[in-house]
Amino acid sequence: MFVDRVRVELQAGKGGDGCMSFRREKFVPRGGPDGGDGGDGGSLILQAQDGVNSLAQFATRRFFRAPKGTPGQGSMRYGRNGQDQILLVPTGTTVIDAENGFVIKDLTIEGEQFVAARGGKGGRGNASFKSSTNRAPREKTMGALGEVRDVILELKSIADVGLVGLPNAGKSTLLSQLSAARPEIADYPFTTKHPNLGIVEVGLERSFVLADIPGLIEGASEGVGLGHEFLRHIERAGLLVHLVEPAPVDETDPIANYNSIRSELIQYDASLGEREEMIVVTKCEMPGAQEVCQDLAEQTAKEVFMISAMTREGLEPLVQEIMNRVEKRRAKKSEIKPVPATMTPSNRNQVAKPDETAKPPKRLPPHRTGATAELSSDHQAKDFDDEAFRQPHASGEPEPGS
Q: What is the pLDDT of residues 220-254, one digit of tens each?
């Protein structure tokens, strides 16, 4: 089951209460306070993890609770901390505040963690209130409550390339031909009901992630045909590959279909209209495909590719061009700006040099420096030449054993 949007309530653990206790032992006069502090409550942590493909584990569970800290006890025994709970979510999950609708955190890097609900601090026992003027404190504090958050987890697929187009344009077939993914393929619309990801290998060490976005229709930006459910998975794709069917079954105009999908993308998110795009005419073995390709090239002033996923015609040039564009985009993202040195206002705008950040050499103890550094169980002072042994200490340094 593929789930890409869930609403859950996260509650961190409560801190343990502090203890009020006094030492009471026979033959121990003036026994003082010995109440220990309570343990901290456990936190709920969201962690992005590759290999987790959906939010299905959250679909049947509405509430998540972290363990609470145990209370302190007498004899200065402190309470145990509640264990933090790590919840694994797919890479690309957005954490949204359910009440106000703002984005709390965007987990786009594998292994990235976010403390969604922090555990409460443990209470203080009366031993921590002891002072020179208050030798028998009778106060303690209760453990703090853990944070409670009602959040929406929304998955937006992370892929280098996103396939878009009308239903039955050939997106799933193309994905199955280029990668090991096996999406459902049939001759009726909306066969694909959720995004499918596949890794396309180009040579030995080159690859990119390709996402098959379910078919879009007119009005998708307004939610028609589960438009919002599909469109959000396109937001993270760096390159859009727009597939155009030359002879649709419903006998609609291919050029008008292309413009309609482009309009829906722009209405949903204006940045999608500026996203890099490749236009591909599928099913090139069908009559009229060449004319559609020429019309699209004239209208858009872009290079239009022609392929056939069934006969694999034109797939190799298309994959090579996609790989080249993906690598150019990766190169731009990998450009790292120099990080200014912080800590002091005087060097806030300066770039830290390598020798400035290097750690100073470790200082050796006196017995490992000078002539004594050569002494060991097998090499005693009597084994060394007297003059050579005393030469380093002629400058006033203390002699061995002095």
A: 455 454 445 567 777 777 888 888 888 877 778 88
200 in the same domain as 87:
no
Torsion of CA 261, 266, 269, 275, to 10 degrees: 90
Joined tokens for residue 294: 């020429």
- Over the stretch 260-274, which tens digit does the pLDDT of each residue have? 888 888 887 777 778
Q: How far apart are CA 186 and CA 70, in angstroms?
A: 58
Could you give the angle at the alpha carbon of 281 between the alpha carbons of 277 and 284, nearest 5°? 155
Q: Hunting for tokens 């599928």 — which residue is that?
A: 282
Indicate the SS3 state at residue 293: helix
Burial of 152 (0-12, 13-18, 19+ CB in 10 A): middle
Mean pLDDT of the chain: 78
Highest mean pLDDT among 1-10, 67-76, 244-253, 388-397: 67-76
Q: What is the dihedral of CA 174, 176, 181, 184, to 10 degrees?
A: 100
| CATH number of the domain that residue 236 is part of | 3.40.50.300
pTM, 2 dp: 0.60
Regarding whether 269 and 193 lie in a shared domain, the answer is yes
Q: Which residues contact 5 (CB under 8 A, 6 or more apart)?
A: 55, 152, 153, 154, 155, 229
> In which band, very low, low, confident or very high, does the pLDDT at 401 lie, cut at 50, 70 and 90?
very low
What pLDDT shows up at residue 339? 43
Question: Could you give the CA distance from residue 181 to residue 198 in angstroms, rounded to a whole number?
Answer: 5
The pLDDT value recorded for residue 42 is: 94
> Which residues are registered as beta bridge partners of 304?
279
**DSSP type of residue 371:** G
Instruction: Give the separation between CA 23 and CA 142, rounded to whole angstroms.
Output: 21
Q: Judge whether 239 and 160 are in contact, CB under 8 Å.
A: yes
SS3 content of the chain, % helix, strand, coil (to 5): 25, 20, 55
In a domain, 399, yes or no: no
Q: Which residues contact 295 (CB under 8 A, 6 or more apart)?
A: 255
More confident position, 181 or 245? 245
Structural domain containing residue 263: 161-333
401 within some domain: no
Domain membership of residue 213 (yes or no) is yes
Check residue 351 and report its DSSP letter: B
